Amino acid sequence: MLHVSVKACAKINLGLLITGRRPDGYHTLETVFAPIEWHDTLDFTPGDSISMSCSNLDLPSDDSNLCVRAAKALRDHAGINAGVRIGLVKQVPFGAGLGGGSSDAAATLRVLNGLWGVNASSADLHRLAVKLGADVPYFLEMKGLAYAAGIGEELEDLSLTLPYHVVTVFPEVQVPTVWAYRNFRPRFDRPVPDLKGLVARLCKDRDTGVLEVFENDFSPVVFEHYPVVREVRDGLAASGAAFVSLSGSGSAVYALFDDAAAAQAAADRMQAFGRVNVTPAGFRME
């Protein structure tokens, strides 16, 4: 096995509408995933067993890490005795609603499927990905915008990219996903808009009038309980953005800009609140 190094990009959510709760406790949702350029880097080298190191010592590198779990799940699926050393350079904030851990797990499945010669089918990889986390299939299978339903694993490639520059701010606080799901205010009976059609109008026609429909159901409770996240939202809104929203369950907040210079100016101003990323218009994952 040769040494392989890959990027694992994060995502934002264009709208996140929680539509119900299943008997198993999982919530159903509708959302549109969009990739951003903020990324981790993973290195894979030969090893006698599955092991991992991480540049961020606050993250576990044992069996609780999604990359290790992904590697072991693929090995068990293939029925092989294979090893690998995984080195993770962590740049995407965790506890941010950006899917960094899910992206890392998807990259692990994709790379090791080839390096170990497993050649698992797309359907088999999808099943493994769903067991690791609801966002993992998106990072495994998609490159640009994708509509998601179910718990996030029912995906449709929209064959679109955002024609806007994205400024994403992480205010150095983490919002636990479990807490967010326990505390959001359900609105299961409301009509759900046609997110697929609306995002097509947004991307193809630059119809910014549809943006108000892309609500995030976690926003009210997160902005209420995390003042610094609310301050980031307000700061981005004052920067002339076309749209500002929480990503996932937070705490990251993103803004869409028509103009690259305006996006960079906003990013420069928001450095005081935490870590900032600027993604250019038309971005797709490699």
Key features of this structure:
286 residues; alpha+beta; Ribosomal Protein S5, domain 2; Alpha-Beta Plaits; 2 domains; six-stranded mixed sheet; four-stranded antiparallel sheet; 10 strands; globular
Account of the protein in words:
The protein has helices at residues 66-78, 100-115, 122-132, 136-141, 177-183, 195-205, 219-225, 227-237, 260-270; strands at 4-21, 27-46, 50-54, 84-89, 146-149, 154-157, 165-170, 243-246, 253-257, 275-279. The protein is an alpha+beta fold. Strands 1, 2, 3, 4, 5 and 6 form a six-stranded mixed beta sheet that branches. A four-stranded antiparallel beta sheet has the order 8-9-7-10, covered by helices on one side. The mean pLDDT is 96.
The total count of helices amounts to 9
Beta-strand share of residues: 25-35%
Largest sheet geometry: 6 strands, mixed
Which CATH C-level class of the largest domain is it? Alpha Beta
- The CATH architecture classification of the largest domain is 2-Layer Sandwich
Q: What's the rounded overall pLDDT mean?
A: 96
Rg value: 19 Å
Percent of residues in helices: 25-40%
The unreliable regions are none
- End-to-end separation in angstroms reads 22 Å
CATH topology of the largest domain: Ribosomal Protein S5, domain 2
Can you count the beta strands? Answer: 10
Structural class: alpha+beta
